[in-house]
Amino acid sequence: MISPSLWLAALLLPPVSAPGPAGLPQKGEPPLTAQTQISGGPRPSEQTGVTFDHADLSIEVRPKQRRIEGSATLSFTARAPLARLVIDLDRNLPVSAIAIDGQALPKRAWSNPDGQLTIALPRPLAAGEKVSARIDYAGTPHVAVNPPWADGMVWSTTADGKPWVASTTEGYGCDLLWPCLDFPSGEPRAVDLHIIVPAGLKAPSNGRLTGVETFPDGRTRWNWQARQPNTYAISLAVGPFEEITGTYQSRYGNKIPLHYWHLPGKEEQARALFAEFAPTLDFFEEMIGPYPFADEKLGVVETPHMGMEHQTINAYGNKYAKAPEGFDWLFQHELSHEWFANQMTVANWDDYWLHEGFAQYMQPLYGQWREGDARYLVMLEAQRNRITNIAPVVRDKLLTEEEVYEPTKGGAGTDIYFKGAWTLHTLRWLIGDRAFFAATRRLVYGRPDPQPGNFTPRYASTREFEALVREEAGRDLDWFFNAYLRRAALPELVETRQGDQLTLEWRAGGPFAMPIEVKVGDRIERLTMDGGRGVLTIPAGAHVVIDPMARVLRRSVAVEQLQAWQARQTAAARP
Question: What is the CATH number of the domain that holds 126?
């Protein structure tokens, strides 16, 4: 997801949901229950006790009515005895019929008072038995207030009045659109997706296109197949799109289909963005490993909201903005999530920083790959000034998405992005490139030697990453991860001078043996800081600079003062 620091910029943009005729749902309508707003966290045993084998989804999008009509056939294998199914589905999408293994159920067999659809099975299942549930539903999905952060459907129109529709569901979850298991490890192993749209519109979506059918009235059905998309990755994107296609010859020997669906009248800008696809792919494949979904596609679609990492069909709404680093940051950020969110998915939202911290760090790393150290440091500096240290990044408990993302719910807010990125920057310097990228590659692919075809999407955690770093670096770094991820305050480096002796000491709320570079005159010395303390003799008159290349994330009084001043300026500007 995009950094919440962009909330203000998003609020200054024109509304993305067209007002529409009176009587149609507007932003925030229809309202959501507290249950539907929860994604992740503790789940019923009926959900954790099944394997989600397959989802066959048919969704008709009716822009004029701001309505969808769906039919979902969900296949599960019981891992424990099972008497009922518990499926997440927004009650704004009422169910009209349910069949279990082809047998229609009476309406008394299911209920959905608050957003969890409970279905009594005709007979209990033993562990290892399979079950298929067909659920027919329809209704008015929740309209996003400020997508992609406060999410839902976005009903918009193009400049010439044609429907332009998109969905975004990471925050509140997949149950805004279809009956699902709304927690990270509830991914279906495979999805067949059939999207029906009005005449003249297209519906690019996840995975591989298997065909487009045209009905007598001009409506079309777009048929897609995707393997193991993450729970919020199923995407609706509907509009009068034009398409740019190409093929990328991977450094791993395979070919990757490239697709960009954009609005009419944007061809010149669209082709300029499309030209970024291949070099950005080359960067990721060199630094991390093979593009995870080469057998499907690399797809991007222009949307009336900022963006989202929908697997193989990333949403792009950055309006082709230009930036001094010379590449489109939004496209690059969302593409990075194909590795860090879609291929490697956290099983618990508490580890959300593995998605966003890595994605954020990939931006200065790409700047370094393209232009060198100066660009890398400039981009990192911009991120450093946004670190707030309001809460720990990791709390080692099962959390919902909003409990991690929202400061009002105890979450770390922007720090899962910027503090996460700087934690990785410091870690890379501490253990070296070989160990850093080896641990990262194993985190993403589950193996050290990824090649096209020898890996599948996987779940990961902070604890696993720590173990991988320990193995690759050959030393225990618990003190490092505890300081940066499990404590809110940053380590502080305290300097004292006595005569020609400079003493540096870490205050970090626990053990912290981070080495530090010190520039004395023209030479740079590295203090090992054993026990969190180091002493250096300084020649008379020598100029001293601590950490001259900004390698170590630590407390900065200057940044704290800047943030306090910015907060006062913002408060004073309010009416």
Answer: 2.60.40.1730
* pTM of the predicted protein model: 0.95
Does residue 226 share a domain with residue 349? no
Residues 345, 478: one domain?
A: yes
Round to whole Å and give the CA distance between 360 and 379. 10
Query: What is the pLDDT at residue 21?
Result: 60
pLDDT at 42: 97
List, edge to edge, every strand of the sheet that includes 190-197: 103-104, 95-100, 130-139, 67-78, 50-62, 190-197, 220-227, 208-214
CATH of the domain at 501: 2.60.40
| 372 Cβ contact list (under 8 Å, min separation 6) | none
Its domain, for residue 303, covers 243-485
Is the alpha carbon torsion for 390, 392, 397, 402 positive or negative? positive
Q: What is the pLDDT of residue 2?
A: 73
Q: Do 172 and 318 share a domain, yes or no?
A: no
What size, in residues, is the chain?
575
Last residue of a domain, which of 436, 454, 485? 485
The tokens describing 375, both together, are 């660009």
| Mean pLDDT in order along the chain per 10 residues (575 residues) | 50 42 87 97 97 98 98 98 98 98 98 98 98 98 96 97 97 97 98 98 98 98 97 97 98 98 98 98 98 98 97 98 96 98 98 98 98 98 97 98 94 97 98 98 98 98 98 98 98 96 97 97 95 95 96 98 96 90
In a domain, 535, yes or no: yes
Residue 568, in any domain of the structure:
no
Strand 50-62 to 190-197 pairing? parallel
From residue 342, give the alpha-carbon distance in Å to each of 83, 359, 457, 556: 32, 12, 7, 35
* 169 lies in the same domain as 48: yes
What is the rounded CA–CA span in Å between residue 453 and residue 139?
40
